[in-house]
Design goal:
Blueprint: E1 6-8, H1 12-17, E2 40-49, E3 54-60, E4 74-80, E5 86-91, E6 98-100, E7 105-109, E8 112-116, E9 120-126, E10 130-138, E11 149-152, E12 156-175, E13 178-193, E14 201-211, E15 214-223, E16 231-239, E17 242-245, H2 248-251, E18 252-262, E19 267-278, E20 283-298, H3 305-313, E21 319-333, E22 336-351
Antiparallel strand pairs: 1-11, 2-3, 2-13, 3-4, 4-5, 6-7, 7-8, 8-9, 9-10, 10-12, 11-12, 12-13, 14-15, 14-22, 15-16, 16-17, 18-19, 19-20, 20-21, 21-22
């Protein structure tokens, strides 16, 4: 399926344009932008840990809405305990003490580092309160939906590379002379683009989960009005580390159910997301069921006051919501459910436009 105004690049010409083939290469997880106006890039990691807590880190080349040349990097960390208590931190480099490699994922912002080769990653964080050391080992090979490059009217770009769709994680956190060790399941992806996302997108849902022997990455992106609210489905399911289904454009049916209106973000949010994948031979249904939220914020937290006034005047109402709950996998055979597994999951709703329920 190719829409007229927004689509996932997949032609031979488009693969050639970005120097890509079907298999992701290590250099694709390195720096992809040049710091020009409107460009952005980040390296993201999240994990569900054995004590019920979650840990999320992101290393940015600069704000997600950059209107000037060059890099203005920073990194963020959120550790959410099982009881809902949360530690948030942000680190900025001093005196331009940062570095990005084009050869692989090798990012340094001050003393914080994020380095790996699509199989093994080491992430290090230090601020005035805690020191965190993370090891991530991939259980699923690096993957991308087609080329991973979503095009909006040909030249405007948002790109996405799930470098580690799922992996084993060990975490050491030092705080107040106390050392705590965790294990868990983790994920890493890499995003970049050449125009602020709110100029091309209306909103997206994104999620990932480990469900028994299965690993799932899913997303549903809706372009903005200028791009006809075109929809880009993304879905991958693996079993025991082998990808078994990933042709979302041909075989995925996506449904949102049980909306509620969130008073903080001023958006209608679906309590249930259903990704139904049926290619005639394999049939899987993934259902995300929301139980709560670990983060909510407006776009103003990522922009200067002047930038936020500008986007408000042009009609944007950005927000971000990180959601927790359960995800259920159903496996069908001859239209009968032969396997059902439920596991905890983390997903997000990134919203740029005005509130709009999916029809």
């Amino acid at each position: 399926m190719m829409s007229k105004h927004a689509w996932m690049a997949s032609s031979q010409e488009e693969y050639k344009r970005y120097n890509l083939n079907e298999i992701p290469q290590i250099w694709e997880d390195g720096l992809r932008i040049d710091g020009s106006k409107g460009s952005y890039e980040w390296w993201y990691f999240d994990s569900k840990l054995n004590d019920g807590s979650s840990l999320v880190l992101t290393f940015f080349t600069g704000p997600i809405a950059s209107f000037s040349e060059g890099f203005k990097p920073y990194a963020t960390l959120t550790h959410t305990l099982a009881n809902g208590e949360k530690y948030d931190s942000k680190v900025y480099p001093i005196n331009n003490d940062y570095a990005f490699s084009k050869e692989q994922c090798d990012v340094r912002i001050g003393k914080c580092t994020f380095k790996g080769n699509m199989k093994n990653y080491e992430i290090y964080w230090i601020d005035e309160n805690i020191e965190v050391t993370i090891h991530l080992h991939a259980n699923v090979p690096a993957w991308r939906p087609r080329s991973g490059h979503i095009l909006f009217n040909t030249k405007k770009l948002f790109a996405w590379l799930p470098s580690v769709p799922e992996g084993n994680v060990t975490v050491e956190i030092k705080s107040n002379d106390t050392v705590t060790n965790y294990t868990g399941t983790g994920y890493h992806d890499h995003n970049w683009g050449n125009i602020p996302m709110f100029f091309v997108m209306h909103h997206w849902y994104w999620g990932r989960a480990k469900i028994g022997d299965y690993q799932v990455v899913s997303s549903y992106i809706t372009a903005n009005k200028e791009h006809s609210y075109d929809e880009i489905p993304i879905f991958m399911i693996a079993k025991n580390g082998e990808i078994i289904a990933d042709k979302a454009e041909e075989y995925l049916t996506y449904t949102e159910e049980d909306y509620y209106f969130d008073e903080i973000t001023k958006k209608h949010v679906a309590n249930r997301l259903i990704y139904d994948y049926d290619d005639g031979n394999k049939h899987y249904r993934i259902t995300y069921k929301r139980e709560g939220d670990i983060e909510k914020m407006g776009m103003e937290t990522q922009l200067t006051k002047l930038q936020y006034v500008f986007i408000w005047l042009i009609g944007l109402r950005g927000s971000y919501q990180r959601i927790i709950g359960n995800v259920t996998l159903e496996v069908f055979e001859n239209e009968q459910v032969i396997e059902t597994i439920t596991a905890p999951a983390l997903w997000e709703l990134m919203y740029f436009g005005k509130n709009r329920r999916r029809q």
